[in-house]
């Protein structure tokens, strides 16, 4: 691997995309990045979606961990490739360009028990915009750690206003609470569903780079028929 801090800790399936591309050229891969302050629970959320459980112990993500989950939407098999990014500046600075390159959707995460993580969303959105991510790339907002009911600092209506102002859907959930697992799944499934509806997201300019695959995209949100 050319970059020593690009780690692959895929839990559910092989992430050898060059192999999967050869054997199944028709499988679309949706790259979804998960962004936000350190400690908000990005790793736990992505683990919950791809692995179906809450990790007992996590360490600060270094660079990126990417995980995949194969899903089926309206009869089409799709690979959701989730990029669990590092929240700490020192662990992410050399990777930022990779995060945003050819991204299909963005998940912004804050911690409902930590107001600073909500206030910092502005900075994360600025970073995203600064990397020429098209406004047609769907974005969602996730307030995590809702199980810590007595510690909530970010009121739902404040978060909702912010989400509306930035044209994002809001999910308030918990990676920890097993009763919320469907809600966590729906974050990623909703995005996959929207991306699937963007019929022009095709297999163009497939390139290989460091063993990974890049897909370029043309999008037309007006054609979206996503139920959410
Ligand atoms: N109570 C509760 N704790 C959570 C939840 N999600 C994550 N945590 C805890 O929050 C801490 C940080 O979780 P991570 O998923 O590692 O945070 P991160 O956003 O990936 O952090 P970086 O990798 O440094 O960017 C860990 O101690 C988790 O156990 C949740 O939904 N509820
Ligand atoms: Mg992490």
Automatic annotation (TrEMBL):
Its cofactor is Mg(2+). Its EC number is 3.6.5.2. PROSITE patterns: ARF, RAB, RAS, RHO. GO terms for molecular function: G protein activity; GTP binding. Pfam families: Ras (PF00071). It is found in: Endomembrane system. SMART domains: RAB, RAN, RAS, RHO. GO terms for cellular component: Golgi apparatus. Keywords: GTP-binding, Hydrolase, Lipoprotein, Membrane, Methylation, Nucleotide-binding, Prenylation. It is an enzyme of class 3 (hydrolase). It is a lipid-anchor. It catalyses: GTP + H2O = GDP + phosphate + H(+). Its main location: membrane. GO terms for biological process: Rab protein signal transduction. Signal peptide: none annotated. The keyword Hydrolase applies. Belongs to the small GTPase superfamily. Rab family. PANTHER family: PTHR47978. This is small monomeric GTPase. The lineage of its organism: Eukaryota, Metazoa, Chordata, Craniata, Vertebrata.
